[in-house]
Design brief:
The chain is of the alpha/beta class. It is built from 8 helices and 12 strands. The chain has helices spanning 45-53, 77-83, 100-112, 118-132, 136-140, 149-163, 179-192, 232-249, and strands spanning 6-16, 19-30, 34-38, 58-67, 70-71, 85-88, 95-99, 142-143, 167-171, 198-203, 216-221, 224-229. The strands form 3 sheets. The protein has a 6-stranded mixed sheet with strand order 6-9-10-3-11-12, with helices on both faces. Strand 4 (58-67) and strand 5 (70-71) form a beta hairpin. The protein is globular and about 60 Å long. 41% of the residues are buried.
């Protein structure tokens, strides 16, 4: 696409609670491209996702993030969503008392800036549900309340389908899924991947990439992207492990970043 939206990350450094986690990230992703960001636990992957989406508590200390040429580092999370960014969270939250269908309609109205009526939205939602194989009973339930891990991630993919962003960040969407749930979620993502959607898929397992094939793979360690390549790089990681790559690159072993504390 000649007018594809572009997400540019240049020299990005960020800290949480005065602890520096990102130490100079450079990455460019475009609408229509699928990038995989891999790395061991505690390498800063989820921090990067939260920084890109403008989550409070994550402070950018250097560098910039541009979306379609605009510096978005000062924008709030909802403003970034309105620009066309989307984050599928690693740990989706429960929202008791709010049904999935009402949540999605409110999100759609706020992101798109349109006052869509219930009938028109239901038609739009039904199209996406049929595409992804989502049953009507699920969207009548309260958001993520009593959902299994697979249902929570499937709901995230449904949100992605409904909101139709230009670039989506999928933060460890495979986390906690059994093989059947993984296949179902990956199938849903594959239905959406195409020229209108760019994806940054964050994972530390090769198994997700058995179902979603990225054009580009990046390896992150100690808050930096240390290696980039094609899909073959993920197979190299599977063979050598992160420790093997770490030794090849001359990285000293350090304690993992405690990203869980900031979720």
């Amino acid at each position: 696409m000649t007018d594809a939206a572009t997400l540019e990350i240049r020299g990005l450094e960020a800290s949480v609670e005065d602890k520096q986690i990102l130490k100079g990230i450079d990455l460019v992703g475009r609408q229509g491209e699928t990038h995989a960001l891999m790395g061991p636990n505690g390498s800063g992957k989820s921090t990067l996702a939260n920084v890109l989406m403008g989550r409070p508590g994550y402070k950018i200390t250097a560098g910039e993030v541009r979306f379609d040429g605009e510096d978005i580092t000062k924008l709030s999370a909802d403003q970034r969503a309105q620009r066309g960014l989307f984050l599928a969270m690693q740990y989706p939250v429960e929202i008791p008392g709010v049904s999935v269908v009402n949540f999605l309609r409110t999100a759609y109205k706020n992101v798109k800036g349109v006052d869509i009526n219930a009938l028109a939205f239901r038609k739009h939602l039904k199209e996406k549900m049929e595409l992804l194989g989502v049953e009507d009973a699920m969207v009548q339930r309260y958001v993520n309340q009593g959902f299994s891990g697979g249902e929570k991630k499937k709901n995230e993919v449904l949100q992605l389908a409904v909101l139709e962003p230009q670039i989506a960040i999928l933060d460890e969407t495979d986390s906690g899924l059994d093989i059947d749930s993984l296949k179902a979620v990956a199938t849903g993502v594959n239905e959406l991947v195409g020229p209108d959607l760019g994806v940054l898929l964050i994972t530390h397992y090769q198994r997700m990439l058995n179902y979603i094939t990225p054009a580009y793979v990046h390896v992150m360690m100690q808050g930096k992207i240390v290696q980039s390549g094609g899909p073959e790089l993920s197979h190299e990681l599977e063979e050598k492990g992160y420790e093997g790559i770490r030794r090849e690159l001359g990285f000293a072993e350090t304690a993992a970043i405690d990203e869980e504390a900031h979720v």
